[in-house]
Amino acid sequence: MAGDLTIHQAVKINLKLNDMAIRLEKGQRINLEKSTGARLSRFMVGCNWGALKTGRKIEIVDNEGFLGFGRKTHWGDEEIDLDIDLSCVMVDSNGNLVDTLYSPLYNGRIYPNIFSKILPGLPLGSDWSKDKSMYHTPDDTEGDKGGDDGLDNEIITVDLLRVNPVIDQIFFFLDIFDPAGIDFNKVPYAAIRMCEYEGTQTDIKRVTNVFASYDVAKEPQFVGKNALLLGKLYRHNGDWKFAAIGDAFNHSDGIMRNSNLCLTIKKILDSYTK
């Protein structure tokens, strides 16, 4: 999400999809288990996406040279920033809102006032969940330029052992904040990956295993849709499981640019929590 506040680049983690990773499809449910069969309680959810191509060719400078001598250029695709936000919302067993996790950049300017009118009591944007079970890396407002770099643009780390026992479901979703008029069918590529990692929640050292992935762009059903409900973690008989949802919406209210994060949260609370 872009704004007048300082823009932070997300910590990017190199992820190579292994042969054992599950490629999720809409409606699919999986157990959170390691390859050994042990329960998986600590992992990350990462999103990788590409910047938008305008369809025009431009001269790109490879090397400025010295005093104009030796300058090297090539012709390539013109690309513009694509700001997609990865967020989540947490509810109890009755579908009541407990907490959210979305970019603190939304806390500036007019957004808190608009959000409070649409959804009173919505927490402000934060890097951490209240129970410290989930952490969101800084906001990426550009996407990959020059092709897929194999790195995640935004990441949410999850420690299920620290989740507030009141929380029954955790929903993950994407919103296209900028530019206006862009839908997920126009996004060159976007994917969600669930991975084990080494390090701390705020300092990921190395990804050790990618156990599930979910492609979320260039699909006909995404035409005109700028918000996407990816899936949810949910409690079942004392364990946590994950369900891929894959439903897309068009949430533009005429006041805010492009997709309204608050309206997406309201849609989840109204239609998916029971």
Characterization of the model:
The protein has 274 residues and is mostly beta strands. A six-stranded mixed beta sheet has the order 1-12-11-3-9-8, with no helix packed on it. The protein is 7% helix and 41% strand.
SSE arrangement:
Elements: E1 22-23, E2 29-31, E3 42-49, E4 52-63, E5 72-80, E6 83-91, E7 97-101, H1 111-118, E8 134-136, E9 154-159, E10 169-178, E11 190-200, E12 203-215, E13 227-236, E14 239-249, H2 261-271
Parallel strand pairs: 1-12
Antiparallel strand pairs: 2-14, 3-9, 3-11, 4-5, 6-7, 6-10, 8-9, 10-13, 11-12, 13-14
Largest sheet: 6 strands, mixed
What does the radius of gyration come to? 19 Å
Multimeric status of the protein:
single chain
Count of the separate structural domains: 1
Structural features:
14 strands, 6-stranded mixed sheet, about 270 residues, disordered N terminus, Lipoxygenase-1, mainly beta, 6-stranded antiparallel sheet
Summarize this entry quickly.
The protein has helices spanning about 110-120, 260-270; strands at about 20-25, 30, 40-50, 50-65, 70-80, 85-90, 95-100, 135, 155-160, 170-180, 190-200, 205-215, 225-235, 240-250. With about 270 residues, the protein is mainly beta.
